[in-house]
Amino acid sequence: MNKLGIASIALVALAGITFFKLNARRSEDTEQPKVTVTLPKLKSDQVEELELSSPEKPKVRLVKKDGAWRVAEPVDAKADDNAVNTAVTKLTELEVASVAATLAKSHEKLEVDEKNGTHVIAKGGGKVLLDAFIGSYKSGSSMVRLNGQEAVAAVRGSIRFAFNKDIKEWRDRQINDTPPESVQQITFTNKDGRLQFKREGDAFVQVLAKGEKKIDPLDANKVKGVVGSAANLSATDFAAAGETPEQLGFTPDAATVVLDVKDDKGESQITYRIGAQKEQSYYVRKDGDDITYLVSAWVGGRLLSNRDGLTKKAAGTEGSRENPIQVPPSGMQGMDQLPPDVQKQIMQQMQQQQGQQRMPAAHP
């Protein structure tokens, strides 16, 4: 190869190297900056108002007044402090683990768009502290997008449950909270007649009026359990607006339960009125409280106790017709209304079911 050919090849190679370096430099000069998402750092005492909108649920507005939370929309009612405090705490603990997406086309898939996301607006001091959409939970993180931004943050932990609630879950469902040991007497009046029991030490004995028949044998433990349920009573829901007391079963002859209480504040009475049954619930009102509550049919049945229900049955095999296991429905507020023996039975059943689920399938 002559010197001219070699020079030509070298010139072409040099041009190629120069072109490559120029393109590399141009690529570096035009490289997009790394996308980050910065969420505001909130303190619980800063949050004075929450606006929450979830798919297929009415908008809920919670407002802090004089240090206490209330539901301001869609109803005006006392709020459940535990529910609100959990939501506020979740806002103070937001920790970005990574950026899950940077383009708007990912919003629907991650459920942080306006149609599918849970919209949370926190306010305080007359300004918006946080305006964000909370979406799906994936790989240990919750998807969060600040309103007006395209980037989606992956926030550590599950948080959507704290904001995506029905209105009843934001309301205070505690009807009464009296220590059972302060109840000195309980009186039932319903279609089956009148029954009264007074405390003697740690037990309850029947009080007989003229003409009343003694329950023999009396199941004193069951009476004590009913007292516990009535003293610490929680609702599962609330009556819909617009229905009259008569429509809800609160007629002059409606059943009542009266608790005579004695504590360090003195002596007082608590009176419940039990209305009609609605599917698996009963309407209940408490004198001095203008709210109409719904309690589970299991709890309602206890408030409607009669002679047969409080008569001690002959012992039989646990779970038999003579000695059934009383299991409250799954929709109950919790097991705190149940006597210890029933709680133990429920826990044993759950443990047995869990053990069966963990057993490996038999090989053919």
Model description:
The chain is of the alpha+beta class. It folds into 2 domains: about 45-170, Immunoglobulin-like (Sandwich); about 175-315 and about 330-345, Immunoglobulin-like (Sandwich), CATH 2.60.40. Helix content is about 25%, strand content about 30%. The protein is built from 8 helices and 19 strands. The protein has helices at about 5-30, 80-90, 105-110, 165-170, 220-230, 295-305, 305-310, 340-360; strands at about 50-55, 60-65, 70-75, 75-80, 95-100, 120-125, 125-140, 140-145, 150-155, 175, 185-190, 195-200, 205, 230-235, 235-240, 255-265, 265-280, 280-285, 295. The strands form 3 sheets. It has a 9-stranded antiparallel beta sheet with strand order 4-3-2-1-6-7-8-9-5, with no helix packed on it. The radius of gyration is 32 Å and the shape is elongated. The model is unreliable at about 25-30, about 335-345 and about 350-364 (pLDDT under 50).
The CATH top-level class label of the largest domain: Mainly Beta
> What is the H/E order?
HEEEEHEHEEEEHEEEEHEEEEEEHHH
Strand content: 25-35%
Number of contiguous helices: 8
Whole-number radius of gyration?
32 Å
Report the uncertain regions.
27-32, 336-344, 350-364
User: In CATH terms, what is the fold-level topology of the largest domain?
Assistant: Immunoglobulin-like
Number of extended strands: 19
Strand order of the largest sheet: 4-3-2-1-6-7-8-9-5
Describe the structure concisely for a colleague:
By secondary structure, this protein is of the alpha+beta class.
